[in-house]
Specification:
Layout (H helix, E strand, L loop, with lengths): L3 H14 L4 E5 L19 H7 L7 E5 L4 E5 L5 H7 L5 H7 L4 E3 L1 H13 L4 E3 L5 H11 L12 H12 L3 H24 L6 H14 L9 E3 L19 E6 L11 E6 L6 H20 L6 H18 L7 H7 L26 H5 L26 E4 L2 E3 L2 H10 L8 H5 L6 E3 L2 E5 L4 E3 L9 H8 L1
Parallel strand pairs: 1-5, 3-4
Antiparallel strand pairs: 1-2, 2-3, 6-7, 7-8, 9-12, 10-11, 12-13
Helix pairs in contact: 1-7, 8-9, 10-11, 11-12
The structure holds glycine (GLY) and manganese (II) ion (MN) (2 copies).
Length: 462
């Protein structure tokens, strides 16, 4: 965990931002795989981690805004627990490490909440995403878990998002530790992605690297020769020469900050000329996007410019036609680039998505579009210093989508379907880096940049 001053300051800022009442922040519990004592790897709730720092199951944090007091609730371990788990710190010791003097067990938490309710005090909580925590809020506050999200505090959500969106130096350092692991993972794949290997062998290799750092992935690894399926988690294919391989992967730093990197590699080590043509368009659009990021720019505007770079490239290859500006305005490019340019990143790989994508990525000046493609843009609002986010354009040839649009003659004035047809089976290309906004520009995060030019990749792979 960070120094206690970090958590004291974060809670104090939160208290300043929320008007009155109590703020209840639940930690996560163990989540069983197939019987209670056999859990999935423990992952603490990111909001709890951010404000209370304790990376263990079974804790609840409470902030009393009006009395200016913070509380930590949890159960001390019994001797039976200690026999199985080894010596454990007591609640009071853990609380001390994050600057909290007031502690109690879970019965005391319930009493304190009951007392606040009886006095008509407001209790703010965040929208739960695990069933256990919905039930716990129901138990504590008496709100039916069915519509519990409707009762989550908008005021608290907004305050948390505004604080967590701006990363401190120590948070950036954590993200760069996660990126150190990403560097090793991606360099390893470039060296072992040979024809005849199975995707699962490569996944084993890179997830082994994550484990060797004592870490865990920040999201389930996407590693596939069928990269046209955006979130493809199947790892059973054999790599064959001249297929493209997408690796979209990330690790967590010791304090659970994420990295999120995508590279696309030619199996066998050399891009075909067709692959190179498409790759260069994606790379040009990604480099363009990174260069365009600076304070005051709306990410949606950059996304739309990137769509134009992609459409221009596709027009140059004869796959699109007509006015590029019109094609992008109407959404024709989304046949090839159907997702958003990126998302905020921090303690979560899609940072704070539990609090609501629109509240994180949009604001009063930018509303989410319902146009196919643009609708999936997760981050659209104005960029501010110390925001961290991904830049991840891609071009995909999705047979089912091509067939659908082609049969509907959709955007036929902008798309040459006879040419696109020949690209079915091509797969997909995505290139993703993690970027922070500085006071007057941006910085691509990572102490060592992961190769992405055609030449760099081919030089490593052959
Ligand atoms: N975790 C997949 C992505 O957003 O890149
Ligand atoms: Mn990714
Ligand atoms: Mn991403």
């Amino acid at each position: 965990m960070f120094d206690k001053k970090t958590y004291i300051k974060r809670r104090s800022l939160l208290r300043d931002d929320v008007n009155t009442g109590l703020i209840l922040i639940l930690g996560n519990n163990e989540s069983p795989m197939n019987y209670p004592a056999n859990p999935y790897p423990f992952r603490q709730d990111s909001n709890f981690l951010y404000f209370f720092g304790i990376d263990k199951p079974g804790f609840t944090g409470l902030i009393d805004i009006d009395e200016n007091k913070d509380f930590l609730f949890g159960e001390d371990f019994t001797i039976d627990d200690i026999i199985w788990m080894g010596p454990q710190p007591i609640v009071r010791e853990l609380a001390e490490k994050v600057g909290i003097k007031n502690t109690g067990n879970l019965r005391k938490l319930k009493e304190q909440i009951d007392n606040a309710i009886s006095r008509g005090r407001k209790i703010h909580f965040l929208p739960p995403y695990r069933a256990e925590n919905s039930l716990e809020i129901e138990r504590l506050l008496g709100i039916s878990n069915i519509n519990i999200k409707n009762y989550a505090s908008k005021e608290l959500i907004k305050a948390v998002i505004s604080q967590r969106s701006v990363k401190s130096k120590e948070e950036i350092a954590e993200i760069e530790k996660a990126l150190d692991i990403s560097y090793e993972m991606n360099m390893a794949v470039m060296n072992i992605a040979k024809p005849g290997k199975y995707e699962r062998e490569l996944v084993g290799e890179i997830e082994g690297i994550i484990s060797s750092f004592g870490s865990h992935y920040s999201f389930p690894t996407i590693l596939t020769i069928n990269g046209e399926t955006l979130h493809n988690h199947f790892h059973g294919n054999k790599l064959t020469k001249n297929r493209l391989l997408i690796i979209d992967s990330g690790a967590e730093s010791p304090e659970h900050y994420a990295s999120d990197i995508t590279r696309t590699l030619p199996v066998g080590g050399k891009f075909t000329s067709e692959q190179k043509d498409i790759y260069e368009i994606v790379l040009e659009s990604q480099v363009y996007a990174i260069k365009a990021t600076k304070p005051g720019k709306k990410y949606r505007d950059i996304h739309l410019k990137v769509a134009q770079v992609i459409a221009q490239g596709m027009k140059h290859l004869g796959l699109m036609k007509g006015s590029v500006a019109d094609a992008v305005e109407k959404g024709a490019h989304a046949l090839f680039f159907p997702h958003g340019l990126g998302h905020m990143m921090g303690l979560d790989v899609h940072d704070m998505e539990d609090l609501g994508e629109d509240l994180v990525g949009y604001d009063d000046t930018v509303k989410r579009s319902d146009q196919f493609g643009l609708a999936y843009l997760r981050l659209a609002k104005e960029l501010k210093p110390d925001f961290v986010f991904t830049v991840e354009p891609g071009i995909y040839f999705i047979p089912a989508l091509i067939d659908k649009w082609s049969s509907e003659k959709r955007y036929k004035e902008y798309i040459d379907y006879s040419k696109v047809e020949k690209f079915k089976g091509f797969g997909g290309i995505r290139i993703e880096d993690d970027v922070m906004i500085t006071d007057n520009g941006h910085r691509v995060l990572g102490r060592r940049q992961i190769p992405k030019s055609v030449k760099e990749i081919e030089d490593i792979m052959v």
